[in-house]
Amino acid sequence: MAIYVMLTTLTDEGRKTLKQNPQRIKEVNKEVESMGVKILAQYSVLGPYDFLNILEAPNNKIMAKVAIELGSRGTLQTMTMAAMTIDELIK
Q1: Are 24 and 8 in contact (CB under 8 A)?
Q2: What does DSSP assign to residue 59?
Q3: Which of 34, 52, 54, 77 fits a disulfide with 41 by CB distance 3.0 to 4.6 angstroms?
Q4: DSSP type of residue 7
Q5: What homologous superfamily does CATH list for 2-90?
């Protein structure tokens, strides 16, 4: 399984949804996991992004599917990067 970092930024609609229903985050997490992606860590962050997610997925195709599905809702924008451990890099 590959590791990915997904940075997300809420849109105006996404901020409204979060304010009205903070538990929506957990609901979306369940949807992401139903697409075959494991959420290893999730943080709310300050700065140009609202969330930082560390994900594990079988391949780039699945991650692209997740990013497109989430982005198509109009509540957030994503930037996804493949990641590897330092030990993997050294090999």
Answers
A1: no
A2: -
A3: 54
A4: E
A5: ACT domain (3.30.70.260)
Cα–Cα dist 49/81, whole Å: 14
**Cα(57)–Cα(35) distance, rounded to whole angstroms?**
9
Question: What does the alpha-carbon distance between residue 29 and residue 11 come to, in Å, rounded to a whole number?
Answer: 18
Q: Where are the domains of the chain?
A: 2-90
The CA-based dihedral angle spanning residues 10, 15, 21, 24, taken in that order and rounded to the nearest 10 degrees: 0
Tokens 């009205």 correspond to: 20
Tell me how far apart the alpha carbons of residues 62 and 13 are, in angstroms, rounded to a whole number.
Answer: 25
- At 12-53, the pLDDT tens digits run 999 999 999 999 999 999 999 999 999 999 999 999 999 999
